Amino acid sequence: MPVVSTSNLCKNYGRIAALRGVSVTVEAGTIYGLLGQNGAGKSTLVKILLGIVKKSNGEANLLGAPAGTTAIRNRVGYLPEDHLFPGYHSARSLLDFYGRLYGLSRAERRGRADEALDVVGLRKRMDSKIRTYSKGMKQRLGIAQAFFHNPDVIFLDEPTDGVDPVGRKEIRDLLQRLKSEGCTIFVNSHLLGEVELISDRVAILNQGQIVREGTVADLTRQTNRYTIRLADGQAFPTEDVRALGFPVTAHNPFHDVEIPEGKTIDPVLHLLQRERLSLRHLVETKQTLEDVFVQMVESGEPGTDRRQGKTAPLPTAKRAE
Ligand SMILES: Nc1ncnc2c1ncn2[C@@H]1O[C@H](COP(=O)(O)OP(=O)(O)OP(=O)(O)O)[C@@H](O)[C@H]1O
Ligand SMILES: [Mg+2]
Description:
Number of domains: 2
Strand content: 25-35%
Bound molecules: adenosine-5'-triphosphate, magnesium ion
CATH topology of the largest domain: Rossmann fold
CATH superfamily of the largest domain: P-loop containing nucleotide triphosphate hydrolases
């Protein structure tokens, strides 16, 4: 059974259509990345799944129960965006507080809090007041808070916000570790490079609609182009390759060969062999997730303004609340 499943999920905040028919499925034990520009609807989707915000239409299920079911709450961890923990708590006392809310025993709370704070690199400062923490330290604490009660699924809204590069790597490693322990992780982010590194599947949300969904490999695979370089001094047989039906563009010392639909690179390789040319470089051109994302967003995939039924401009920033 999937951990998250939504079907045709819609959310309107008054006249703003934040989600417009979102259907996603997240399988257990995977890391799922939800990407989108500011205002795309990422946080709204998570908040509906957690029962913080009410859906307007469609289906939303979490751990096999309708979103918002209280009985499953202690199986779920959540790092909200812009969280604000009371400054008078220390990291240790905050986790103890949350642990009590989750119904953990005193011994469990103590042992797990030490370990969780160790994992996020806060152990040395765990008795200092939160108000003395840097932004990245607060974020690390938020992550510890999200996973320390050992939930089945964790929702992280922009987990690496404000965290330095070393810390971001540590967080990525931590998420992989939690996944290896069987936890399902749902990450909202606009840091495409990061999501690309850890997610099993990703969805791109644009103006409240999913415009692409799949594995990172699926989304970034561009099978129709190879970059070739021959040994120094050898001329690329551009005309012969074109005669075989493969368009060629040169950018010395490389040549890009496009593979038309339904063909493979093999005839080109055979030709090079026949002409006794030596390959020095042969790479299938890959897109990054960022390329895919920018393409999707630039191509418009336009949204509809609920009020006028017209194509809405692409949001570049959060609209007025
Ligand atoms: N409480 C609210 N009242 C009115 N509109 C809201 C509310 N919360 C969100 N919205 C609107 O819904 C849309 C989606 O917002 P949401 O916060 O889900 O976006 P997001 O993808 O998380 O953006 P960001 O990357 O900036 O966090 C935006 O147009 C936003 O202004
Ligand atoms: Mg958000």
